[in-house]
Each structure stands twice: as C-alpha cells, then as structure tokens.
C-alpha cells in the first residue's frame, strides 16, 4: 500500500459538502461547558481545577477527593492544645454541621485512646457531650462506649479549614457603628485562632464567646442560594441572637456580629465578589470609592468597589433574565393563541 493510500484512510477531509449539510442546522456556538476565570477572564472548562492561563494559575476548584473529605470533617486552626473539627451531620442536610474535639497526642498510632477521650458536640448525636453526662448517672450503662460517626470522621480527616484574611481599609468602609468596628478589630487581632474560617463553599466557622450552647468558642455561619440563583441571598447563624429574632414574629431581625465578621472577610477578597454580591452591595458603599486616597494616587480598594458594582449589575441582569424566562414559559403553558403569544413574548 502506497503512502498516499494510507494518508487517505487516516485523514478525513473536514471541509466537504456532506459535512456542511450536516452541521448547517446546529445554530450558533454556545458557551456551554466553559466558564470565565474570576481573576483573568480566561475561558476554562467547567471541570478544570486550575486556570489554563500560566500567568494566572488561580485554583478554580479542589480535587474531588479533597472536596469529599471537606464535606465530612475539617480541622479548625485554633492555636490551642485541643483539636477542633467541624463535621457534617448527614441526617440533617448538607449545610448542618457540628463540632468534635480531639486531644493532641505525640503518637497517632493508638487511635483507641483518641476515641475514648474525644468529645462530640453535635446536638442530635446520641453520644454527644451532654448526653454522655446524663448517661453517667444511669444504672444500666454499658462498660464500653460506642464511638459515634462524627468522631470517626474527625479521626479520618486530613484537611484543614481555610483562614479568611481581613483588610483594615475594608473594615473602615463597612456601614456599621464604631462599636461594631471596634469589636471586630479586637476579635480579628486575637493571637489564638482565626476569626473566620471557611469549612465548605458556603459554611464558615466563626469565633465566639464560650457559652453552654457553644462551649468550644466556635459556631457555624452559613449562606444559602435561592432556587435557580447564582448568588447567595440568605444566611443563617447558630447564635442565640439570630435564633431568637427569627422565632418571634414581627420582631426586627438584627444582624449579629458574626454576620459582619463574615462580610468583612468576604469583602477583603475579590474571589468572593460574584457569589456574595447580594450582601456586599448592602454593606459597602457602591457609588463612591471605599476609602479616600492621598496625593491622587489610585487606591487598591477603589478596584474593590468597581468589582462589587460589576457583580451587583450582573446579579440584576441575571434576575431579569430568569424572571423573563419564567414569564414566557408560564404563557406557553397556558396555551394562549399565537397572535397574543407574539404580542406578549
């Protein structure tokens, strides 16, 4: 067989009349399966882990194995002698989490010692710290204690929470009272632990005062996306102030200090502007630069305000598109005549 015959069998001509007829009805190309990098606006695949732009190199998402571990148990950076883990409670939903405490041992060979002295602070767990105290007074208590699933997931965990960074200039631009700003500044500058740590995509572990409800000095704060929405539009906190304000009908909902701590951390990083623009547009000034600059030098946080404005505009446009799409689908389902359908749609 000659070289030309082999070449004809291997290489199929692309521009032929048959191919043009087949591809003629496909319409315009779409952007399905690709997404823009938030840092450099380069298009990457939706499953890409790192931006393909070599000058950028932003991590788009973690690997599947790491994200799976992060959902189960994440170790917090406390700076203390005890290890604190944020664990997911499987029976209560994907956003419901609790805490587990483990001691720090020099040797990790014997995990039976860890399981015996480990403490679970999940409210719904039968082997939680409060239930264990009550069982000590029962007469028919078994000699061997069962280890709950939350402690087991903490023992297997190899991932740590992401400490959130804070910018003092952003704190000055928050639309809150001076007392709240002073409290946030004091909490953020404490030596032990970080004020806000990200344990999942939408859940934060926030430092708080140690109380009977939160004996470890940490609580969970989470954001919720609306149905079919790209941005987060709701939030929840496990503090007593937030729970009491929601339980009493007609009472004005007061934003807790943990809410402002999360907003401060999110506004200090441009990576979170798009998804959390709904909250940032209310807590930060959008019409003017975030803080004044001296000698007419460009302020780095003026770019922050510009990014927030863009994210807010994108959110408004996306909401209009979704509302228009819902209205058109509703008209089509009713089955109106073609003339009316053309006038309405």
Automatic annotation (TrEMBL):
<dbReference type="InterPro" id="IPR029269">
    <property type="entry name" value="Zf-tcix"/>
</dbReference>
<feature type="domain" description="Putative treble-clef zinc-finger">
    <location>
        <begin position="26"/>
        <end position="65"/>
    </location>
</feature>
<dbReference type="GO" id="GO:0005634">
    <property type="term" value="C:nucleus"/>
</dbReference>
<protein>
    <recommendedName>
        <fullName>Putative treble-clef zinc-finger domain-containing protein</fullName>
    </recommendedName>
</protein>
<dbReference type="Pfam" id="PF14952">
    <property type="entry name" value="zf-tcix"/>
</dbReference>
<dbReference type="InterPro" id="IPR026049">
    <property type="entry name" value="C2orf42"/>
</dbReference>
């Amino acid at each position: 067989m000659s070289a030309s015959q082999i070449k004809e069998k291997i290489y199929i001509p692309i521009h032929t009349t048959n191919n043009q007829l087949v591809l003629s009805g496909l319409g315009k190309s779409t952007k399905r399966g690709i997404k823009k990098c938030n840092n450099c606006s380069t298009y990457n695949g939706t499953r890409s882990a790192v931006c393909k732009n070599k000058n950028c190199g932003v991590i788009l998402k973690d690997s599947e194995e790491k994200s799976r571990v992060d959902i189960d148990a994440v170790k917090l950076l406390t700076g203390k002698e005890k290890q604190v883990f944020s664990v997911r409670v499987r029976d209560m939903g994907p956003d419901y989490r609790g805490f587990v405490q483990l001691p720090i041992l020099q040797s990790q060979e014997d995990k039976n010692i860890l399981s015996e002295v480990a403490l679970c602070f999940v409210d719904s767990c039968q082997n939680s710290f409060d239930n264990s105290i009550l069982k000590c007074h029962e007469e028919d208590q078994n000699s061997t204690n069962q280890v709950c699933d939350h402690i087991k997931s903490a023992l297997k965990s190899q991932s740590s929470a992401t400490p959130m960074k804070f910018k003092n200039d952003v704190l000055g631009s928050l639309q809150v009272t001076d007392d709240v700003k002073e409290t946030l500044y004091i909490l953020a500058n404490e030596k032990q632990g970080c004020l806000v740590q990200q344990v999942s995509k939408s859940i934060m572990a926030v430092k708080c005062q140690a109380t009977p409800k939160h004996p470890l000095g940490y609580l969970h704060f989470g954001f919720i996306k609306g149905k079919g929405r790209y941005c987060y539009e709701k939030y929840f906190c496990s503090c007593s102030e937030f729970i009491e304000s929601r339980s009493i009908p007609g009472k004005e909902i007061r934003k807790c200090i943990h809410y402002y701590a999360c907003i401060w951390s999110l506004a200090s990083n441009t990576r979170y502007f798009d998804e959390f623009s709904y909250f940032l547009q209310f807590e930060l000034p959008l019409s003017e630069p975030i803080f004044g600059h001296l000698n007419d030098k460009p302020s780095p946080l003026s770019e922050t305000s510009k990014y927030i404005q863009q994210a807010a505009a994108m959110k408004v446009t996306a909401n209009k598109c979704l509302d228009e799409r819902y209205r058109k689908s509703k008209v089509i389902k009713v089955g109106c005549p073609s003339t009316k359908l053309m006038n309405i749609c």
